[in-house]
Each structure stands twice: as structure tokens, then as C-alpha cells.
User: Fold this.
Amino acid sequence: MGTPERHIYLDHSATTPVDPRVVEAMAPYWGEVFGNSESSHAFGQAAASGLEQARQTVAGVLGCRPAEILFTGSGTEADNLALRGVAWAARRSGRGNHIVTTPIEHRAVGHTVDQLRDLFGFEVTRVPVDEYGRVDPDDVAVAIRPDTILVSVMTANNEVGTVQRMFRIGRVCRERGVLFHTDAIQAAGRLPLELDDINVDLLALSAHKFYGPKGCGLLYVRRDTPLVPAVTGGAHERGRRPGTVNVAGAVGLATALRLAEEERVAECARLRRLRDRLIEGVLAYVPDSRLTGHPTHRLAHHASFAFRGVEGESLVLSLDLEGIAASSGAACAGGEPEPSFVLRAMGLPPEWSLGSLRLTLGRANDETDVERVLEVLPGVVERLRAGG
Amino acid sequence: MRPLRRLLLDPPGESDRVARSETDHSGFLGGAAKMCEVRVVVALSGGVDSAVAAALLVERGYEVIGAMLRLWAECGPGDAHANRCCTPDAVSRARRVADQFGFPFYLINAATAFKDQVVDYFIAEYGAGRTPNPCVSCNRTIRFGLLLNRALALGAMYMATGHYTRVRRAGGRYQLLRGRDPHKDQSYFLHVLTQEQLAHVLFPLGDLTKKEVRAIARQRGLPMAEQPESQDVCFLADGDYRRFLTHQAPHLFRPGPIRDTSGRVLGQHQGLPAYTIGQRKGLGIAATEPLYVLAIEPAENALIVGTARELGQGECLVEGMHYISGAAPAATFRATAQIRYRARAVAVTVIPLQHKRVHVRFASPQRDITPGQFLVLYDGEVVLGGGVICKAQQSML
Assistant:
């Protein structure tokens, strides 16, 4: 026992370390280029130039126009702006009152939609997901009503890694003339994000999920999409997201996104091999275990499990004491008294859904990390079951 | 690592325990033997006591893990009230202690279990005309139940808390003793512990006084050295249990008759949970001499009041008796008893009955024997056990 010699980080869906190349790209913007990007003098122009280059870079990766990119303070803020902005714009023009979403969205979407329902009188339909956490695009089509203003479906789920049929859902929305928002926060750097392919109108990203800095998000808003600002103030980001722009953060986000996209195919192939070895090993060595989420339509770095009769919180703490950093479901679900709402929505019985474990791989992980997990995890689960 | 099952069946020997009564506190602080192999989960509350407990265990060489329970809290309109035992402030204070001493710190979610086992019990007891003690219930089911189980599951040999109480091993069994500081002794709250639990708990403050604990905290530069103490029930947003009950269980408040001991109706009460035994103020009755609440009769939704002369009770019935030794005495015995935390221990004769019940006869009549509170029996400084007061009487025999 005692403190483990090496800590293995397997929680890359919670956050990632900042890539040194990103740190380097951001460096000038703390001191040297410190101006307010809205100022007209030389200092402001230097900052604005960095900001617009960042916007250009992001637009290049996503295949959109620079003017369609808004920088925000987080992925959560981007989701909030998308939902409130579209809903309030619809309210202003009297266009409709109904939102379609899913029961497995991150709280950044789920709680915002609930607030729009409870405080602003919007109606909400949550289309069901199957046992793998996938939405049937036909269910989305059925849920859309004449007064539907927005469909919001996450690209890939944070807890179980399942990837949605984005193209088909997007096509349904396009055919019905309804705006389509997606929380793509888990997908960036892990899936191709070509916006025209998925017919999406609004898309949220967060830099720290792909080796960028924390506190930097972005919202893609397709041109001519009506959006009322959720934060009001000055002229930054054309008034749609006022507040002096974090230029260093925007540069960091853009650099990290570009690097992640450049390395995506090779890195995802590597991670997929590690992930599949991990999944195969855990299911083989731990009795009464199952994979949660889809076996193939899942993020390349994402392995999530349920263990019958084990308490997920104790599992995570026990692994931490063995030097393995994992999570039980979502990182922000720490204070949640209930079994995971995602697993419940997928119909997993409570004796399974309480014992969830998420292992998410990243750049620093290799085969030895996977083997270490396979060495430690079976014993930890057995001990917890014996003590339960 | 020792296998858990073996740990549970085979309590470790006395050599590695720090909170023995025979260990004086200077010896304890000296800590010659290193305890690197022994993992202890310390239940941190963000207060000074548990922080000092953790500090002492670290200095003694234990492998310390800090844990704080996330408990249920009443939600106010619009914004979340945190339970006093785990406010964001308390969490950050506990985290600072963990940082200072370099041990891991975890939040353990017990909100649902706490609501079921402690808060619902609290409401149900008031509904049954009794005055509950939620801290005892929490110790039994949450702190020394759920949290202790989690600690053992994490490979810990012990769980430690900052309670002022002591454990001693005598004749192959564990005894629970009063804390050395008579003003802080918290053994009353822990009389529900079992042999299995006592085998796996450490109380590093048992031999210390509060003054000494504060001095240790100051010496170590602990952030909460001067933190004031709070006695309120942790899950009440404002310490007002009547307001809490009117929000959470309005159906419990049904007006009914106030009677004297002869059955004469003197007035109307506002709902039984608004009253406790011995209460004098707020009855709303004009009388020639002061009237006190003598009894609460939920079956008739009636409040029984009387004069100061009628307050003293000589006997009571206690149910759900738990004996720390694990063996219930068959014959009548003498002991001392506390009828609530901070009550003076008084001489009693205990007559065991069937179904875990006992008659307790006090050497002199006691005021305010309150159904729902725990009666805890002591033999000198040794806690024998206790149960719930269900009925007080002038004379039973």
C-alpha cells in the first residue's frame, strides 16, 4: 500500500492537459499583445488580428465562415447561448414554443432546457434513446411539431461515448425547417466535424477537451440564424457574446483544434486499439461486467462499463488510491445522489447503473497503462463486492 | 493489503490503536512507532476537531485519507442551501487541511441515504409525538454505517472521527468510554456502536480537552483553529425545526386540545410538533401558575399540560435497547443514565423486559423525560448502551 509511484490519467473526457505547442501559441497574448480587441489603437488592432486569425483557423477546421464563430467562456456557456439565444429569438418573433431534445444531454443542455420550460413556458419533448444511448432519427421526425423551434442532440455522449446519427438527424431537421443544435464537446478531435455534412445550425465546443486551455469555448452559429444574446453588454463578438474577448484563450482554442484535427486520424486509430484491448480485457477479467454505450458507434478514446453490485464512487476512489484516475460517469456528476440519469435513460437496471466506470484515454496513454488497469481493476471490484 | 473479509471477522490487535484509554496524550503525540502500513479514513467535517484528529494521525505515521460526506440539505426557494456538515466553506476548509498534510481528500455522496435514514426519521418521530435525535441516527446509519463501510472498502483498517470519546479493549471486547474532557464528552451520541464498528474506529481526541485541541490546531496552523462551534441540526437551513417541519410535513400540524392531567380542556394547540416536553412558553393559556408541557398524546392529538409540581417523573420505559458489549443483561442492574446529551448522569435501576425493552427507575424524579430522546446507560465512564425513551411515568409498579 502507500502512495502509488505513478499516476495514470484515464479521465480525458473530463479534461486534458494543455499541449505545449498551444501554450507556446498563447504566450504572446498575455503580455506582449494584451490589447482589447475592440480598441481602435495599435494595441487593440494587434489583439484583434490574433483573434481573427484564431477565428479563421477554427473556420478552416470546421468548414464554415469565420463570422459564424463566437468565442465564449466555456462549452457550457456556448450551449446556454445556443438554446436561450434561439428560444428567445423565437419568442420575440412569435415563431414557436417547442424544443426537442434527448434525456442523455449534458446538464449544460438539460438544465438550460428545463429552465426554458419552467421559467419561460417553452414546451419540451425528450425523444427516447435505445439501450446503447442512440436516438432514432425517425423519433425526432415524429417529435417535431409545427411550433418546434429547435432540436438539440449531442454529437457524442460524455458518459457512455455513444455517437449519434448526426447526418440523419440533421437531414430531418433541415427537411422540416427546424434549427438543429448539437453539443459536440466530446466529439472535437475525435470525430470529423464538417458542418455542412451534418446540417447543423449551432454547435458548441470546449477547448480543454482537446488539449486546449480551460475557460474557452466556442459556438458555431450558421449565418442568418436568429439569436438573442444571453449575456448583454458591449460590442464584442458583434454583440452576441459581449465581454472583452479572451484572445489568448481563443488563440489557444484555435491552435489546439487545428492540431487535434491534423493528428486526429492517426491518434484515433491508436486510441481505438488501446480502447478495444481495454474493453476486451475488462469484460474478460471482471465477472458481471458489461460495456455501456454502443460497442462500435463510440468515441475512439472512450471505454465505459457497469459492474453489477458495485458502488461507482467507491470504485473510483479505490482506483485513485491505486494510482489510476478514472471517473464514474460524468466528472461534474460528483454531487448527484441518483444513479446516472444517462444509464437510466438507456434502461440499465439500478443494480448495474450504480456501478459505472468511465476510462477515457488520451495522448499520454499507452499499452502499459491499459495493462496496469487490467491488472488492478479485477481485484478492486472483487474487494468492493466482498465488502458490500 | 489484508483481505477485507478477514479484517471484518478478525479485528486487529491493540498494538496499532492510538485511542486507548491507557495511552496518555503525550505518549500519543510522541508516536515512536511508524504506522505506514495502516490506512485510516478520517471523517472530516471542516471543523477543528476532525482536522486535529487527521493531523494527529498523520504525525503518528498512519496513511491518512480524508473523507467528507455529502449530505442532504433543505432547498430554499431559488437557491440551494448546503447541509451545514458539507457547505462549500466546510469542503474548502477540509481540503486545505488535506493539502497541508498531503493526504488525499474525497467527497462521499450520502445524500439519498441521509434523507432516508435521518431526515425522514426526524419527520416521522415528530409525527409520532416524539422528539428525535437525528445525530444518533446519523452516527448509526451514515457515519459509522455507510462511511465506515466505504472506508473498509477502500482498504482502510480504521475510520477515525473527531469525537471526544474513547475506545478500550478489555476482556476480548471493546468498550466505549466517555471523553476525557467532561464538557465535550460525546459518548452519548455513539452509544449505538457495535463491537464490529468499534473494532474499526479511532477517536484520536478522546484523551484531549477542547482547549488542548484548539492549541494543537493553532500550533499546526490549521485554518479552522478559531472556528466557532455550532450545535444546530445540520440539515436545517436556519436552525428552526418548527419552520422546517411546517415546510416539509405540513400535514403534521393539526390543531387539537390542550388538556390538564384531569382531562379538562384548557385551550387549543397549533399542532403537536410545535411543542416539546417541559416547554412553558407559547402555550397561550392564562393560568394562575405557570403551566408546562407534560406529555404529547398523538393518538388523541392532545397536548397535556400541568404545573411545575407535576413535571418530575420517577420512571420510564425504554425500547430498542442496544448494548455495546453485544450481550443484554437478564437481571436487574444499577447504572447511571443520561436522558439527553448534556443532561447530568443520574443513578438508576434498570429492569430488563422482553423485546429489547427496559424499565428505568430513577433514584429521584427527573424533569423533562422526553419520548424520542435516547436514554444512555453508563457504568462510571463506560458506556453500557441505550435505547429510545417511549414513555415516562410517575410510578409504574
In short: The domain at 20-259 of chain A is CATH 3.40.640.10 (Aspartate Aminotransferase; domain 2). Residues 247-285 of chain A form the longest helix (39 residues). Residues 287 and 305 of chain A are 12 Å apart (CA to CA). Chain A touches chain B at residues 1-3, 311, 313-314, 317-318, 320-321, 334-338, 383-384, 386-388 (CB under 8 Å).
